Amino acid sequence: MTEDRSLERIVRIGIALGIAGTISIWAARDARDAAGFLTGASLSIFSFHTLRRLGEGLQPGSPGLRGSAAFFGFRYVLIGAAAYGIVKLLVIS
């Protein structure tokens, strides 16, 4: 029970930091830099969520991990595509 609350807290803190950072960067720089930060923060939360699901699926008595291995590998393609978009399309280095 304690583990579930801590994992939920990590997600909530990540979302709050992502929003606060996006607003701060938007105020200090411009919307393009803020969009890049928001994309990176979203990918971080997405990555944490997929790792969490993988960990839950490995526990004894869990329903299993059908398709999770393929998705786990595919997430790197998604993250790479988003990183490419941040650097090339938003022109943020």
Describe this structure as you would to a colleague:
The chain has 93 residues and is mainly alpha-helical. It is built from three helices and no strands. The protein is flat, with a radius of gyration of 16 Å.
Q: How many individual helices?
A: 3
What is the strand content?
under 5%
Q: Report the count of strand segments.
A: 0
- From the spread of the alpha carbons, the general shape counts as flat
- The amount of helix comes to over 70%
First-to-last CA distance: 42 Å
Structural category is mainly alpha
Runs in which pLDDT lies below 50 for 5 or more consecutive residues are none
Main sheet, how many strands, which sense, barrel?
Answer: none
Radius of gyration: 16 Å
Question: Which whole number gives the mean pLDDT?
Answer: 83
> What letter string, H or E per element, gives the SSE order?
HHH
Short description:
With 93 residues, the chain is an all-alpha fold. It has helices at 2-28, 31-57, 68-89. α1 (2-28) runs antiparallel to α2 (31-57) and α2 packs antiparallel against α3 (68-89).
Short descriptors:
93 residues, mainly alpha, 0% strand
Helix-strand blueprint:
Layout: H1 2-28, H2 31-57, H3 68-89
